[in-house]
Specification:
By secondary structure, the chain is mainly alpha-helical. 63% of the residues lie in helices and 5% in strands.
Length: 717
């Protein structure tokens, strides 16, 4: 990937060029078959713009995945390469900016930079490399939606070791899928001969055929064979002695390669093989050897299966199979060093802000005390950033006994459960935290006093979920009052803002809307300073819903749109599904059905990514109301009132209002009048009035009949 591939494969590149009608270009084969190299070579010559993301195991989280892919897609229009240089191989695996979460992937493609390029008459290819690391169903759902919404001229390319759980059969039936598999990627005699000659290995055709037969045309084995044969006087004899199994071939060749390297280089390879990503300074910290950058560049120039991950050659990775063999040799030859190597990697990565990788190495080192300290400190940052799934993964990687005996780890686990709307185990985790405070335990990041306000905040959220507004207010006020003094400014802002926004929500449930507005407004400066983008979004969304409940649609829309536009690249909006949900409801209330549906789609996608189950459910329900309206409307017809369109299509004399439909939807979900009032920011009496009015229009005697009748007419799903 780092340089132009030494072998041209015109038969495969032509297949990719000709697949203009395909939405998905699927390159699926086992490791080492040249999937990435093929796509790199093709994009190096094709007249297209591209975005390339090489996925890693830690990207198997909706938040991180979305951040990387949307950032790559957003950068497409910024490339000003000439057509002949566009997509040059040196650009692949570029670690494009990942400090922004840009919104739903399908929307990013339709409306963002990719859409701009396509609208201007250009072709775009978005590459997801190493897609086999993805196992999260939510990510597969997002990718399927992305494929379904690609504009003409845009294609998604996936390189993977296994077929992804995507709608391949449907795409195949529609002629929208190009598949290149292992049998397509196997090297022919001419291709293998060209590859060997590029490494100064010249064999008769018969020996090339024998090598292909024994390697089954496997690109990685052929490349390693070229390295090991280059300086051998008995090349033909060596070819004949290769085993037939992929594993045996690789072991044999790597053994030959390593034996011919200086002892210091062998040691460097073995010790750095524990790393998923390599940089010069990180390698120096792990191995204790100087000149890490120079060593990595020398390995790259020697074609030792090391791949650059950025344009500046600061980060690299070993070919996965090469790394596997190196790690196996390390376990066999130097098992006593492995824990120390991981510990040094954890220390360096932690000091340089890579919490995820630092925690992984600390756990692999077996140093649970260090791993626990890293998770305890990083979990608060992760939760504030909306990375609930990542924090949950860290906690699950630790022994449960370790988590339960550490107050911050127990509280962080309770936060994960509460924020994911899984209240079942929260109480036990809070009890663990309080017991741990009474016994010896590791250092808490901000001291013991920081645990108590967190416990109170979580109990306030639980009471809210349980429909106990009095307790919710009491616990939220306790949290506000118990924020410890002497914290670092950002930490203090985090605790104050979190406590205040929970108090605001509790006041809404309690029916004190004016006090809730004041609390929400007071929470925003601290939430922004503390970096809690999800809570900022929830506060803005709730303020907008309050404005909507008071009949001030313009104010609700202004609040939401101002937050969406607050930062370049939609940073806050992308992490704030509640803002998009409130905007969807405001647009729906104003009769702007298409705009409401678009905002609701964004809310669903972002809520799934953030693990916000409550907003995801509400946004899906909004979509369920709107999609039948859109389906029944003429393509170029007026937007009209959403509820009125549904009602007229159903044959009702008097249409239901959007608010009446919303109330009926919540009734259908089994919500009590009090719960509906809290969610819609109205009084219980107002809810009863809406139920009564809707029942009358539907000719129903009670709320149960009203829901049934609304479903019969297609007003409710």
């Amino acid at each position: 990937v780092g340089r132009r591939p030494p072998v041209e494969r015109p038969r495969l590149q032509a297949a990719l060029d000709d697949a203009r009608d395909a939405r998905l270009l699927l390159v699926a084969a086992p490791a080492g078959f040249g999937k990435s190299t093929l796509l790199a070579a093709w994009l190096g010559t094709a007249d297209v713009r591209w975005a390339w993301v090489t996925l890693e195991p830690r990207d198997n989280d909706p938040v991180r995945f979305a951040r990387r892919v949307a950032s790559a897609a957003d950068a497409v229009a910024d490339r000003d390469d000439a057509p002949t240089a566009r997509g040059s191989v040196e650009r692949f695996d570029h670690a494009l900016a990942v400090d922004r979460i840009l919104g739903a992937l399908a929307s990013a493609v339709r409306q963002g930079a990719v859409g701009d390029v396509v609208a201007a008459g250009g072709d775009v290819v978005v590459v997801l490399d190493d897609y086999h690391v993805v196992t999260e169903p939510a990510i597969h759902g997002l990718v399927a939606d992305l494929i379904g919404h690609l504009p003409t001229g845009a294609r998604l390319a996936i390189a993977t070791r296994a077929d992804p759980p995507l709608p391949l059969a449907r795409l195949r039936a529609r002629g929208e899928l190009l598949e290149l598999r292992a049998e397509d990627l196997r090297f022919t005699t001419s291709e293998a001969g060209e590859l060997l000659r590029s490494a100064a290995v010249v064999l008769p055709d018969g020996d090339v055929d024998a090598l292909i037969a024994r390697t089954e045309g496997w690109a990685a084995a052929l490349r390693l064979a070229a390295v090991s044969l280059r300086d051998r006087p008995d090349q033909a004899d060596a070819v004949r002695r290769f085993g037939a199994s992929h594993r045996f071939v690789l072991d044999y060749i790597v053994e030959e390669v390593l034996v011919g390297l200086p002892a210091e280089t062998q040691g460097f390879l073995l010790r750095t093989a524990i790393l998923d990503r390599l940089s010069g300074p990180l390698c120096e910290a792990v191995t204790g050897l100087p000149d890490g950058q120079r060593r990595l560049e020398e390995l790259e120039h020697a074609n030792l299966l090391i791949l650059p991950l950025d344009d500046e050659r600061r980060w690299y990775r070993y070919h996965s199979l090469f790394a596997e063999v190196l790690r196996a040799r390390l376990r066999m030859e130097q098992p006593g060093e492995i824990a120390g190597l991981h510990a040094r990697a954890a220390a360096w990565l932690g000091a340089h802000g890579d919490d995820d990788a630092a925690i992984a190495h600390a756990i692999r080192s077996g140093d649970l005390a260090t791993a626990s300290r890293l998770v305890a400190a990083a979990s608060l940052r992760g939760l504030n950033a909306g990375e609930i799934g990542i924090v949950r993964r860290w906690l699950d990687a630790l022994p449960d006994e370790v988590v339960r005996h550490d107050p911050q780890l127990s509280v962080s686990y309770a936060w994960c459960l509460a924020l994911a709307d899984e209240p079942g185990g929260v109480t036990d985790r809070l009890a663990d935290a309080e017991r741990a405070l009474e016994t010896a335990h590791p250092d808490v990041p901000f001291g013991d006093d920081s645990i108590r306000p967190q416990v109170a905040m979580i109990r306030s959220r639980l009471a809210d979920l349980d429909g106990d507004p009095a307790t919710a207010v009491e616990q939220a006020r306790l949290a506000c009052a118990s924020v410890p003094s002497g914290l670092p400014p950002r930490a203090a802002a985090t605790f104050r803002g979190d406590a205040m926004v929970l108090l605001a929500r509790a006041l809404v449930v309690a029916g004190d809307i004016d006090a809730a507005v004041s609390a929400y407004e007071a929470s925003l400066p601290d939430l922004r300073e503390g970096g809690n983008v999800l809570a900022v979004g929830r506060a803005i969304g709730d303020l907008a819903m309050i404005a909507l409940s008071r009949g001030d649609r313009p104010a609700a829309i202004r609040l939401c749109e101002a937050e969406i536009e607050r930062q370049p690249g939609e940073t806050s909006a992308s992490a704030s599904p509640a803002v998009w949900l409130a905007l969807a409801r405001a647009r729906e209330d104003q009769g702007e059905v298409e705009m409401a549906a678009s905002a609701a789609h964004r809310a669903v996608e972002l809520a799934v990514r953030a693990g916000d189950a409550q907003v995801a459910r509400s946004a899906r329900a909004t979509l369920a109301r709107l999609e039948p309206v859109l389906a029944r409307r003429p393509p170029d017809g007026p937007s009209g009132d959403a509820a009125g369109v549904v009602a007229r299509a159903a044959g009702l004399v008097e249409p239901l209002t959007p608010r009446e439909i919303e109330v009926l939807r919540l009734v259908a979900l089994g919500r009590s009048n009090a719960a509906i009032a809290a969610e819609l920011f109205v009084t219980v009496g107002t809810v009863k009035s809406h139920v009564h009015a809707a029942s009358g229009k539907l000719g129903a005697a009670n709320r149960v009949e009203a829901v049934a009748r609304a479903r019969e007419l297609g007003i409710l799903p």
